[in-house]
Amino acid sequence: MGSEKLSDLLLIFRAVVDADSFSAAGRELNMSPAWVAKQVTRLEAILDSALLIRSTRSLRLTGAGQECYRTAGNVADELTALKNKIHSDAKLVSGTVRINVPSIVAIDILAPHLAAFQVKYPKLSLDVVVSERFVDVLNEDVDIVFRAVRSLSDSTAIVRQIADLPRILCASTDYLRTAPPIDTLADVQAHKALMFSGLQKPMTWFLRQGENEGWAEPQIALQANNSFVLKRAAVDGAGLAFLPKVIVEAELRTGQLIHLNQFEDAAPLTLFLLRAPQRHLPIRVQTAWNYFARLGK
């Protein structure tokens, strides 16, 4: 485990001792009590020592816990001083930031900024995991999550809205040449659909045409939880696809895909940045958060 993660655990442990309970510490740190307790258990495993004697009414420090508590206090003071120093020189920021990102964001939105990030922060490394899976930023080992959704459910996570991600209805010339006419929302029902399976249930498209909008339920010819699979199938003539415009701009320019611009996305996706709330946010995470929060500007 990196030293930056150990410092996080020490600060959580100190908060638990100060509050005399996991629940109170969780409220102070904006974390769930279960997550706080898990972090203290991880710290005990790393140090190979019991730090707390737990009872139904209170927590008591062991001898090792008392020493750990004193160390945690020193760490908090040193981190504050270090934060002030590092803010004056970006090249001193170091460590690893764990990022989870869906594929539609990873390739066309995040990746073009990675080289510039490394130039600005040469000692700060990124561990990027590309996944369509819903990642729980509060309870999984990740620092920053990019999420593209219609809306976020209530959450205690820290959230920053980055950009809108409108989708477009598109298809290849070959498909449109032989397919039924598609002039109205009702016409969409008769078409083969290449459907993204990671967002909607039942799988439908919410479209707008002029002043009219409604849910289209086309015939699903292919469903996948990866938009790039659907894009390739659309280019090959397999059917209509409703995809984020950002990932099909090259195909639109070359004519491989045709934008059916009589239809609009009636419920566009929004790109959010999420992280777990922490009373003492590591500089490495704060630095990456501030950098990537500007992607939509």
From TrEMBL:
Domain HTH lysR-type: 8-62
Keywords: DNA-binding, Transcription, Transcription regulation
Cross-referenced InterPro entries: LysR-type_TF_proteobact-type (IPR058163), LysR_HTH_N (IPR000847), LysR_subst-bd (IPR005119), WH-like_DNA-bd_sf (IPR036388), WH_DNA-bd_sf (IPR036390)
Domain of life: Bacteria
An example molecular function term from Gene Ontology annotations: DNA-binding transcription factor activity
Presence of keyword DNA-binding: yes
Family affiliation: Belongs to the LysR transcriptional regulatory family.
Record-given protein name: LysR family transcriptional regulator
Native organism: Parasedimentitalea maritima
